Structure formats: C-alpha cells, structure tokens
Structure to design on (490 residues):
C-alpha cells in the first residue's frame, strides 16, 4: 500500500475513532448528570414529604391514635397538595398488605434491610417508561407502613435519545468532511515523497541531471538534500568513470594494435630472422606495457577497498626501504637519489606510504635526464609554515585503535624534488587524472601508464593528508606531502 493511502486511512480511522469516543463520553456524561440531578431532586422531595408527614402527625391532638386509615388520609392529602397528584403513590402495611394506590403498577420487592430513617430510591423500567421509585418507612401507633412514590423520568431518556440522534448526524457529517481533509493532509505530507520518487525514477533511467526540489525544513527536505548530494556525487563518479573508461580504452588500443599487427606479420609473411626478432621484440615490449597497465589498474582498484592500518613509521627506515626498491631503475639511468631525514616518525599505512614514495620517485626518474638528481627529504614544520589553515589537519588524527592521538600543532613534510624537464602550469591540475601524460611519447618510452599520480592521490586521500605540486618548465618539479604530527595520550 502506498504511503498516501496509509496516511489517508490512518487519519480517517483516527478521526472516526476520536469522534466516536468523544461522542460516547459526552453522551454518557450528560446522561449520568441528568440522572444524578433527578436523584438529587427526588431526595429533596422525599425529605419534604417526610417532613410534611411528621409535622402533620405532630399537629394531631395529644394521645390521638394514629392508625392506618388516619395515616393514609394524611399521606394522600400531603401528596395532593405537595406533588399535585401527578406522581404515582402506593402505601403498604408492614406485613405486605396494600392499603392504597392511586394507579396500578407492577410490584417489585424491596430489600428488607432498607434503613427505616433514610428510606431508599431506585430507577425502574416499567413497560416502555422509566420511573424513579422512592420508599419511606413510617412508624405509627398501629405498626409500620411503607410509602412508595413513583415519578416519571422518561423525559431524561427521550432527551438522551434526541441527543444521540443529533450526535449520529453530526458524526456522519464530520466523517464526510474528514475524508477530503485526510486526502488533503496526506497529499501534502506525501508530496515531497512523490516528487522524490519521480526524480529517482528518472535518475534510475539515466537522467542524471534530475534533482529533487528542496522546500521547507522537515525530514523530507533533508532527504531531498541528501538525495541531491548523492546524485551529485554519483554523477561526478559516472563522469569520472566514463572519462576513465575512454582513456583506458585509448591506452589499450595502441599496444593492442602493435601486438596484432606484428603478430599478423609473423603469421602471414616470410621474414628474415632479424625481422622476426624485431617483431617479437615489439610484441614483448607492448605486452609488458599491458602487463604494467593491468598491475597499476589492480593496484589502484585495490587501494580503494583496502582498510588503512595506521602505525608508527620511522622515517629513516622508510627512506631506506624506498631507496632499496628504486635503486635498480635509478642506476640504469645514472640518477642519484639524495636522502635527508630531519623528522623521526609519521603515522600511516607503511605499505601504502612506500607505494606513494616509489611512484613519485619513478615519475621523477622519467622526468630527469641521464645523470639527474632526485631529492627525498623529511622535515618538521608548523601548520603556518606548511601554508595550511586547518584543512586536513584537525585534532582528531586517525589512530590504530589502541591509543588516543591528538595533534601537536606541527606537521612532517616529505618532499620529492627533481631537476627534470618540469611541467607547464596549465598541466599541473590534470596530472593526477588517470592516463593523463604530460609527454606521452617519453612516458610510454619509459614504460609508464599514466596512473602513477592517480594512485598517489588515492593514497593521500585515504590518509587524509595534503600535498602540493610545484613545477617550473625546464627547471624541475617539487612535490610536498604534509602529514600532521600526532602524539600518544594515555
């Protein structure tokens, strides 16, 4: 069931139940109040009736015998004068003998334990009418007599019935009015959801420009804002993926074309031994290039899914490990790596940091000429010296889960410098894009795939670090990595 109908039925049922309960309470309260009023009135009438009879008995001459006939006459007289003879009256002797009644009504026994001084009262249903029946017990010279008085209170029930009829009509009208009101309220509440549903439906069908309208400040508005943010991020990722896929397909085309062309030459043409070796060499070199491209892709994909394990890393040991990994490729080109470690430790994932630095040094190797120089250094600076304003340098630095670490106001800067060919200013912003190459012919000649700096940027992001790339054409390139320094707190 849709949310609109859930809201509609919920509101309708709530209104109906509320009106029924409220109406029943009002009907019951008014009825009880009316009966209470009649009981109080009857109690007052009984008191006046008893007082009048006692006063009449006291007014008789002294030692005048008060027999049954005398008592009956006095009671009848009081009844006609006080009540106007409108009510029913019946007089019994103590042994149950009926002495007088002005109208005939069905008999119903009273409780014999009735208090003689207080009398009693009850409501009886006689036929189609309701009466309030009162009983007075009198002691006379000849014994005990019971006086029953019946007063018609049917009008109370008639009024209650009329009120019930009016209530049913009002209830029906209110319920009829509640349906369009419930529909209006449900429509108003679910409108943002319907709009969001429409937008998500269009988005799922490929309309990535669709965005939800943001109005108000309720939870639905927050949902719309979150959806729009998600859609923006997803659209950016889709664009990046499309660009990445296009660049990847372009990078794959060249080596594949070479491999296919040279393999067809080997299969279809009679070639001299030297030509076959040349063809095999091209196929081998392009195959290795595809292998490197594949490895870089796997490495880049794996980093995004790996869990970062922060640990304390000694700078000197880190640089020695990096030096050992790049020394062979640098020696082949007679490139010198100069190390300078003025800082002691950093916190990060050791393997990822090694991958970061080896990629930066490998990029520098491709940029420098024969006999060039690459510098790898680490030093401490304040945030101000790093040129940071707090971005990426908050006091909640990631820890290893065993200790609490907080910023000390300093950072460690690892710098990779080279005296290579440098990069134009307009190209610096793009060098971290996947497959982007400043000098494609030189990069491919050096065995590059254009993924090194993209991989480095992912590692930087995963560590929540900052980096800065400065380069001057014909002078060289300098890359600084700003790492917040942390301390253990017990």
């Amino acid at each position: 069931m849709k949310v609109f109908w859930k809201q509609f039925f919920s509101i309708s049922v709530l209104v109906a139940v509320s009106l029924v309960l409220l109406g029943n309470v009002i009907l019951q309260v008014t009825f009880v109040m009316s009966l209470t009023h009649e009981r109080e009135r009857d109690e007052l009438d009984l008191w006046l009736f008893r007082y009048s009879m006692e006063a009449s008995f006291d007014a008789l001459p002294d030692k005048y015998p008060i027999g049954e006939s005398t008592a009956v006459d006095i009671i009848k007289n009081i009844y006609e004068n006080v009540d106007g003879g409108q009510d029913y009256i019946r007089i019994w002797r103590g042994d149950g003998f009926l002495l007088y009644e002005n109208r005939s009504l069905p008999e119903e026994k009273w409780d014999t334990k009735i208090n003689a001084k207080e009398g009693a009262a009850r409501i009886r249903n006689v036929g189609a009418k309701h009466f309030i029946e009162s009983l007075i017990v009198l002691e006379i010279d000849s014994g005990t007599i019971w006086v029953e008085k019946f007063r018609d209170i049917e009008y109370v029930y008639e009024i209650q019935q009329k009120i019930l009829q009016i209530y049913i009509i009002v209830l029906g009208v209110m319920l009829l009015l509640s349906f369009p009101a419930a529909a209006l309220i449900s429509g108003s509440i679910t409108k943002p959801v319907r709009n969001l549903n429409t937008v998500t439906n269009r988005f799922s069908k490929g309309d990535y420009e669709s965005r939800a309208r943001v109005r108000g400040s309720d939870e639905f508005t927050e949902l719309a804002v979150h959806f729009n943010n998600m859609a923006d991020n997803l659209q950016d990722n889709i664009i990046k993926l499309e660009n990445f896929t296009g660049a990847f397909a372009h990078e794959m085309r060249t080596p594949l074309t070479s491999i296919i062309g040279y393999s067809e030459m080997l299969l279809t043409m009679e070639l001299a031994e030297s030509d076959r070796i040349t063809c095999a060499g091209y196929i081998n070199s392009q195959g290795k290039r595809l292998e490197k491209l594949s490895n870089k892709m796997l490495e880049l994909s794996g980093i995004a899914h790996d869990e970062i394990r922060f640990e304390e890393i000694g700078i000197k040991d880190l640089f020695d490990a990096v030096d050992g990994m790049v020394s062979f490729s640098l020696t082949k080109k007679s490139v010198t790596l100069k190390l300078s470690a003025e800082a002691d430790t950093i916190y990060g994932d050791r393997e990822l940091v090694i991958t970061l630095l080896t990629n930066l040094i490998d990029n520098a190797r491709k940029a420098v000429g024969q006999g060039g120089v690459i510098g790898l250094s680490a030093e401490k600076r304040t945030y101000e010296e790093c040129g940071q304003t707090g971005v990426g340098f908050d006091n909640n630095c990631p820890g290893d889960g065993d200790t609490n670490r907080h910023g000390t106001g300093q950072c460690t800067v690892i710098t990779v410098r080279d005296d290579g060919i440098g990069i134009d200013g307009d190209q610096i912003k793009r060098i971290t894009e996947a497959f982007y190459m400043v000098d494609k012919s030189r990069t491919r000649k050096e065995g590059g795939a254009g993924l090194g700096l993209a991989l480095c940027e992912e590692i930087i992001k995963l560590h929540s670090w900052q980096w800065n790339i400065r380069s001057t054409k014909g002078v060289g390139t300098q890359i600084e990595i700003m790492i917040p320094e942390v301390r253990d707190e017990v």
User: Anything to note?
Assistant: Residues 250 and 418 are 29 Å apart (CA to CA).
